[in-house]
Amino acid sequence: MSIETLKTDDGQVTIWMDGPAWDDHPKVATVGKCKFTSATAGARLLAEAVALAKSKGATALIGPMEGDTWHAYRLISARGDQPPFLMEPSSADHDEAAFKTSGFDVISSYFSASAPLSALPGPKPKDTDVFTIEPWDGTDPDALFTQVYDLSCAAFAHNPFYKHIDLTDFLAMYQPVVPLLKQELILFARDSTGALVGFLFGIPNYAEGPEPRSVILKTYASAQKGAGHWLSYQFYVNAKAMGFETVIHALMHDDNLSAIRSGLNGADVFRRYALMGRAL
Predict the structure, then answer these.
(1) How confident is the model over 52-83, as pLDDT tens digits?
(2) Domains of the chain
(3) What is the pTM of this model?
(4) Helix (H) or strand (E) holding 43
């Protein structure tokens, strides 16, 4: 993988030449790790990134994205008043202007929302014998995340901007958060053979300190109809029993089912994000 970093006195960016697919562009690069002192400085650096990517054969450039959607991507397009939460992307207020000035447009939009757990979980889903829901047993985190990896690759393969990642790289991303994990907030759906057909990954919002009052519903995926509803229901039940007061529905695409379900659960949007792109 070809990676290059551009630095000046007023900022820096890193370019990954082997980016994910985007529309019908034959060779997509990404630009991330963006640090600008101003929109003007950012636009200058991004113009250099565009020229470099084009000279290397790229036909499109998207960002902010650190190579793929498994790693940090998106900028904050509407900050709101709520403080940052754990594992949330960060960007300066002038970053979006820097991208737009250098010819980028919004190509995908996302949001985070919060809801009081006092109003959840809502009606219990219908009982089923197609799958069962169980929490992580707290042992062997590598085995845990290997299962999550396998289902994630299958569930997300058709998502926009998807790019495959090796298991070793996937495990390296999650190993730093293992000490922060709570068994009750990591849930599996298994069919009658024991095969994994869904998972939900939640984590306390330690950005609030050692005793957070909010909990983050970070990711879930399902290969079985109804499993996602059951996973989220059990997550809310467990989170309430643990004393959390608020749930954060983190980093949802504007158009996906999670966004619809978040709205049905009475969640209020508090932050918006954008992914930017331009043809070269």
Answers:
(1) 999 999 999 999 999 999 999 999 999 999 99
(2) 3-110+275-279 (3.40.630), 116-272 (3.40.630.30)
(3) 0.92
(4) helix 39-55
